[in-house]
Specification:
Helix content is 48%, strand content 18%. Strands 6, 9, 10 and 11 form a 4-stranded antiparallel β-sheet that branches. It has a 3-stranded antiparallel β-sheet with strand order 3-2-5.
Amino acid sequence: MPWSNQGGGGGGGGPWGKPPGQGPWGQGPSGNNNGGGQMPPDLEAMLRRGQDHLRQAFPGGGFGGKGIVLAAVLALGAWGLSGFYTVQPNEVGLNMVFGRYAGKTSAGLNYNWPSPVGSVQKLRVTDRNSTSIGFNSRLDARTGSQITSDVNEESLMLTGDENIADVKFVVIWQIDPIKPENFAFNVRRPELTIKAVAESSMREIVGRNQIQRILTAERKTIEPAVQDLMQKVLDDYGAGVKIIQVQLQSVDPPEQVIAAFRDVTAAQQDQDRLRNEAEAYANRVVPEARGAAARIMQEAQAYREQTVAEAYGQAGRFAQVLEEYRKAPTITRERIYLETMERVLGGMNKVILDQPGGQGVVPYLPLSGLEAPQQPQTIPQSQPQTRQGGTR
């Protein structure tokens, strides 16, 4: 908008180059728009227009009793409609009237008395929350990574054998969907209460065990024991909290003696490994020894039975020979003599002289040269084979 700068003291221009009493929008205090600009909103004019609209709505020239009643009804209806609210699927709504709990609502559109008579508190009952004990984690804004810091006041615990264990764990919990009002009204600061109960429960369970068992065998039993104890204490408090899981992050001795404890743990693991190997060797050797012993006993039993059977056979044969000897003693003696000589001399190198008295025998006789050659000995073995092949 061009301004008229007439300078000097003549003409009587205002600070914007306009006549006195006229503003920069070209309008004076009287409301006349001589300069053709836009005026700012006039509250008095707006009030007058509102009164005109009300006079048209209520004929008679003013607000009578009916008008006041109608305005009150409209205001009351608008106030009543403001009591509708929506509950999400993962939430539960708690209705309160004059600060007193009046019931809970499920997911969907619900209604409660509007403020200031009533109010609604919404709790996320299906969301899982985590509480860390013994350490804190935060997100680094610059790098985007998790930064963990130890809290020794929470993690250092006394064991049953008067040692110190550094225990860090996480508790997963959620609001009890059956009794969410307990979580909202029975405990002032539920998160801090859960953390205190978790720490005290872990200290109690650790205090019942020795440090060696905590570091090795008892780690799998600590988590459910702490979970059960926490749930019992929170139920006694009426906290409205459901413990989902207790997760041990680390169980270590103090930093000053951690190397010695690791050596002890490694030695125990070696001991268990050697014991398992010894048991495996015993399980393999003992059955083999028992099998060998059973085999020897069976062979001895068979040898005994064989010897006894041969003895019975020899006795029976002797009895038969004796019976034949009694029938013909001379023939039997000669037969026994021949059979005995055959058995004794059958496998020996020998020379038989038919002449009585040894007549015609020179004093030196190379009897070893008279032995039969070795080759003819194989001939009788091959002859039966040849005869057998011929019979085929």
